[in-house]
């Protein structure tokens, strides 16, 4: 199917985001598949879902994806092309895990913040409210989404999510945007999940500057180097030597003392 920007701008925006996610993770094979009215993508640390819900039969049939894998490409004129792939690009076990993630992340997520349209400080606000670190690359994707609602996994359900969704990171950040068509008869939603990692600023180690004295390659030059002797330690050693010289050991102890029997 061909998707033109001027005919289906919301779907085109979702596919352009999917294309950027795939493009920035070229070493990873994307999992891109349909499931009736929904289209799913997982690629490295990103996941996305496009959900088309309509009460109009014609619209519903127009966006019936089916349970098949897809390939995404862009034509020279800018149109997006979504074509059926020959097979899924992953093992069945991984596909099951992907479906588990989308299933449980959907109803366990909690809305925490809404980005106001035209807000130039949306990124700092998202970081402040969610305490999730957003990379420079993620900023570009968020800009493409626009002004979404921000979701996180409900803190009360972290253990439940880990149990049901397997090894997926529970500290994800989800950006959700929605539009309505045909007087509210059609609702289209896109959600992009960011697999957020720890804030690198919190785990960064303080770097201490260490000054080292460069040693000469010619050992004769050591004689010309000014080496400061620690006076206190040297005086203490002289005092200890003097005490040892003045110490008188009794002759009986010298004759009978055996260090192995001490």
TrEMBL record:
Residues 216-236, 243-262 are annotated as: Disordered. Residues 220-235, 248-262 have a biased composition (Acidic residues). It comes from the Bacteria. This is Uncharacterized protein. It comes from Faecalibacillus intestinalis.
């Amino acid at each position: 199917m061909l998707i033109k920007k001027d005919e289906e701008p919301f779907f085109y925006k979702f596919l352009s985001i999917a294309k950027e996610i795939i493009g920035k993770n070229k070493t990873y094979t994307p999992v891109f598949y349909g499931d009736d009215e929904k289209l799913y993508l997982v690629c490295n640390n990103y996941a996305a879902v496009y959900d088309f819900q309509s009460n109009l039969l014609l619209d519903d049939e127009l966006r019936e994806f089916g349970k098949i894998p897809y390939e995404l490409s862009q034509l020279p004129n800018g149109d997006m092309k979504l074509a059926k792939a020959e097979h899924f690009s992953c093992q069945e076990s991984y596909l099951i895990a992907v479906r588990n993630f989308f299933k449980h992340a959907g109803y366990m997520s909690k809305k925490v913040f809404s980005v106001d349209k035209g807000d130039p400080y949306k990124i700092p606000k998202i970081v402040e409210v969610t305490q999730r670190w957003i990379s420079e690359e993620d900023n570009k994707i968020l800009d493409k989404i626009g002004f979404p609602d921000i979701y996180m996994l409900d803190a009360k359900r972290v253990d439940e999510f880990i149990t049901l969704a397997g090894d997926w990171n529970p500290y994800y950040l989800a950006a959700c945007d929605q539009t309505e068509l045909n007087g509210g008869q059609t609702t289209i939603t896109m959600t992009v999940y960011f697999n957020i990692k720890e804030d690198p600023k919190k785990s960064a180690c303080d770097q201490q500057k260490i000054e080292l004295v460069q040693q000469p390659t010619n050992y004769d030059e050591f004689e010309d180097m000014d080496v400061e002797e620690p006076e206190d330690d040297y005086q203490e050693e002289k005092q200890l030597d003097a005490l040892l010289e003045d110490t008188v050991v009794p002759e009986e102890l010298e004759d009978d003392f055996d260090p192995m029997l001490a």
